[in-house]
Amino acid sequence: MDNRTIPRFFVSIIADLTSDIKNDMNALLNAHTPKGRSKSPHVGLTSNVLPEAQRSQTGVSSDYVQKADHEWFVLRVTYNRTQKAHGIISTSAVQSYMPMHYVIKKEIGKKKRILQPLLPNLFFVYATRETVNSIIKKKGEETSVLKFYLDKTKPLEDNGKHPPLTIPFTSMTNFIKATSTDSEHVRIVSAEQCHYKSGDIVKVIGGEFKGVTGRVARIAGQQRVVVEISGLCLVATAYIPNGFLETVQNQL
């Protein structure tokens, strides 16, 4: 298999089928179930697809719907125990996402494309808070392998801690679109690196980032679209030409 056809992110999903969002979500690659089937060769994470995967290299498809009692939570892996964390999540029958990206490295004078986590030690899980609590408090573990990534912009809860950071469904969908290509030019950026051209919200209407919504900025000498996950990170696409951009009226 050519390395350009290898999925660069990993999702495990238990979900209801729907056709309502077929045109609103981008392809994830290489469908599998959380238990008992083949796994990605990269870091052992099971994977699945979002709608439109029939147009991807793999030709497989699976849809899911937004659930009123579910939210996207960000979980932090403690002590770099990513493999152990994956084992816990993959046996919990929940939808999860860990964005990956390719980096170019030189080894013995040769350039190699290496797949690495885009956000090291972070998992995204779509479930109820009760379910995520049960995953975090896994029996038999001396110390927690996973912990909530907390939203420090919100007041303390009764337990004396800030509430978990949650990501709106549409924002997470947009984030997945932006981070699910195999381009090595996708990157995490700081606000200082983003030289925004205007405050306009744009939608990418062509190319591998089609469907991504964000703000246009000049980063590392190139025009890119920046996607923000509030309270967590900014993600920049690869170069996007003007012809692939369309200004949209609705705000993010």
Gyration radius from CA atoms, angstroms: 18 Å
Number of domains: 2
Distance between the termini: 38 Å
> At the third CATH level, what is the topology name of the largest domain?
Alpha-Beta Plaits
Oligomer: single chain
Instruction: Please tally the β strands and state the result.
Output: 13
Q: What is the CATH level 1 assignment of the largest domain? A: Alpha Beta
Number of helices: 3
- Indicate the percent of residues in helices: 10-25%
Task: State the low-pLDDT regions, or none.
Answer: 1-63
Structural class: mainly beta
**Backbone shape:** globular
The fraction of residues assigned to DSSP E strands is 25-35%
Report mean pLDDT, rounded to a whole number.
77
Q: What is the ordering of alpha helices and beta strands?
A: EEHEEEHEEHEEEEEE
Keywords: Transcription, Transcription antitermination, Transcription regulation
GO cellular component, one term: ribosome
Organism: Leyella stercorea DSM 18206
InterPro entries: KOW, NGN-like_dom, NGN_dom_sf, NusG-like, Ribosomal_uL24_CS, Translation_prot_SH3-like_sf
